[in-house]
Amino acid sequence: MEHRITCPLCEAMCGLRVTVSWDDAFAEAERLLRPVLDRHGAEALAVYLGNPVAHNVGLATYVGALVGLAGAAGMRAYYTPGTVDQWPLNVVSALLFGGMWNAPIPDLDRTDHLIMLGANPSASQGSMLSTPDIMGRLAAIRERGGTVVVVDPRRTQTARRATEWVPVRPGTDALLLFAILHTLAERGDIRYPEHLRHMVDGLDDVIALAAQFPPDRVAPTTGVPAETIRRLAAGLADAQNPVLYSRIGSCTQEFGTLATWLVFVLNVALGAVDRPGGALFPKAAVWSPMFMKPPDQDGPGWRFGRFHSRVRGAAEVFGQFPVSCLAEEIDTPGDGRLRALITVAGNPAVSSPGARRLQAALPGLDAMISIDNWLNETTRHAHVILPGLSPLERPHCDDLYWMYSTASCVKWSDPVLPPDPDRPSEWEILLRLAGAVLGTPLPEVDVGAMDDLYTQGIVFAASQSRDTPLWGREPAEVFAALEGGGPERLIDLGIRVGPWGDDIGRRPGGLTLEAVRAHPDGLRLGELEGGRLAEVLTTPSGRIELTHPMLADDVARLADRVDRRADGLLLTSRRHLRSNNSWLHNVAALMRGRDRCTLLINPVDAARHGISDGAVAEVCTAEGAVRVPVEVSDEMMPGVVSMPHGWGHGLDGTRLGVANAHPGVNANLVNPPELIDVPSSTQVVNGVPCQIRPVDS
Length: 697
Ligand SMILES: Nc1nc2c(c(=O)[nH]1)N[C@H]1C(S)=C(S)[C@@H](COP(=O)(O)OP(=O)(O)OC[C@H]3O[C@@H](n4cnc5c(=O)[nH]c(N)nc54)[C@H](O)[C@@H]3O)O[C@H]1N2
Ligand SMILES: Nc1nc2c(c(=O)[nH]1)N[C@H]1C(S)=C(S)[C@@H](COP(=O)(O)OP(=O)(O)OC[C@H]3O[C@@H](n4cnc5c(=O)[nH]c(N)nc54)[C@H](O)[C@@H]3O)O[C@H]1N2
Ligand SMILES: [Mo]
Description:
It is globular and about 70 Å long. The two termini are 31 Å apart. It has 25 helices and 24 strands. By secondary structure, it is an alpha/beta fold. 33% of the residues lie in helices and 14% in strands. It folds into four domains: 1-75 and 323-396 and 415-445, Rossmann fold (3-Layer(aba) Sandwich), CATH 3.40.50.740; 97-282 and 539-552, Dimethylsulfoxide Reductase, domain 2, CATH 3.40.228; 449-521, no CATH class; 567-694, Barwin-like endoglucanases. The strands form seven sheets. Strands 2-1-13-12-11-3 form a six-stranded mixed β-sheet, covered by helices on one side. The longest helix is centred in the first third of the chain and has 19 residues, at 22-40. The site of one ligand MGD has 36 residues, from helix 4, helix 12 and strand 17. Belongs to the prokaryotic molybdopterin-containing oxidoreductase family. It comes from Mycolicibacterium psychrotolerans.
């Protein structure tokens, strides 16, 4: 049975939920939120924004209103799965290239030598790298005589289709990459083509840091033989158009920032950055306010660790604490304790390390409001659930992901079905909540006025910021030229100030939303190209700033790791094609086939622990233990086990008929909250020390 929520739900007595009118839901949200805000201020409030925010234009364009205004009212930090995902990439992008979403992607169609680390596009379809048929594009590299190397502790489907699979011990990618850089330098293979010569600072400093990581030294720790490391370096050096790409397996690990950084360092050292066939900066057709530096990051460069979390003292990074801090900030008494939580399209009770503590903490909130369409592991604790319209009832236009796309496109999709006129859109709900945090009783918030205020605020901030296309423009004039309201107005703004836009009247004949709408199949406006460095870099120097104390300082932590022999098993994460994090397990058609929530283990490790295929094992970490069925497979490198994330359904109070019949096990019950990649405050869910034992059933 499906159980998509279409009417607001409120908690009645004894955990029972009742369907209520929108007016009653808003009144109830007000009744719960107001005392917290009045007594404790916005400091007692947190907002959690989940992954689908990025795939829903109304949420993507308006979560900034809630987070920004709540921040202005005193909310300390907000939470997202960014800190179990791409935060290291954001940090590195900000420091090296100037913007947190500003990074080059591999030019898949022209490279002849790709090394891919910690990514499995056969399942994920590519991440921070948007392209249709990514597996076809990888196959094409080989068909034209090129090479694809996959570095991953698991021989994934992607690795199977590659030229070579290089198993690596989880968490040690940075050592491997340093050793490759070391080898390139030793061979005299650092390329400094003309286009980079005056555009890069600090490469020599990084090469000097690499001196302590020769292949022979890192081989025992990484599990990659020294000859293989030298061969990988030679392969890159000999290729015409080499490039490296990394993703989540190299981010959510002990040295996620260093590993992600070194991928870009190597791309620079190979002369690949900003060169066709190498790593190119996509040109997004739609400008997004996300691309500008947040107003609280005043001054040149970026600052991190401007404030720290109350309980464990974790450093903020881009205004966020590691997502696992949420639980302790709710359940630890004292001034500044979180008493109210708003979740938007997120399921942190499953997706956040230390999930057991969060699940126990959520019932302790005075007010929990969720914008979500499912009664799941997280929203079952909400006092009020406010559901959005179905994806078929709302328009769509991507924004963020064009920053990582292999072509410059734009497409506006009108709703397929007429939206129910009696239901608010999610962006309106966000504005209402934002107004309530600012002090207006929630039912009385003037959503239209809030929308104008927010849009004017964006135009004003962009007009003050050098790295936006609105810099120096007269805000009132720009705002007056925009029509309508809601996401359509913001997307119209983004298209018009984008590279193909009409520049708000200054470039007659340029694109507007209206012009884009006339092409329901979308417009393909440009291809990836090189030679754009001067235009894309927004660092203080205007060059690629390859070293930063924050990065260089973390090398000492890495150097300590080289000689630490970790002989025990390491737990890693994985995803599957037919699910999306935690929330497609309720779709019957996607749940056919055998159980996917298994612990993958190499036959040697299985035999050593007396565990056979299909048996149940207990996986135990510093955080706790779970029981999970075992799948013995030589696709895992010895010493490493893999569990998918997003499972652990079947909890009381949820309404997920299909998912609850295939509950699986929540990997984040055993991922410890305190394991983080230090510079980026990112959770470690790859390379977690664990033990296993058979369970007698
Ligand atoms: N161990 C481990 N943990 C991980 C990861 C891992 O690899 N290993 N990966 C991490 C990553 S990369 C991510 S992105 C996170 C995901 O973490 P979350 O974003 O917290 O979780 P999701 O499973 O994506 O949950 C999405 C929620 O949004 C709701 N939803 C779906 N569509 C919409 C919509 O259009 N509107 C609204 N309002 N709600 C909607 C769904 O019902 C669901 O409740 O998990 C992270 N956690
Ligand atoms: N079908 C489907 N598509 C998705 C998602 C989904 O759940 N299902 N989730 C979406 C989201 S939110 C995201 S963030 C992206 C993520 O997209 P990807 O980054 O491609 O993520 P995964 O498919 O989890 O692949 C990560 C790989 O890293 C490997 N790995 C683990 N530890 C290490 C390590 O220490 N070093 C190296 N080199 N590798 C390691 C794992 O074995 C795994 O093969 O996918 C997105 N796309
Ligand atoms: Mo993600």
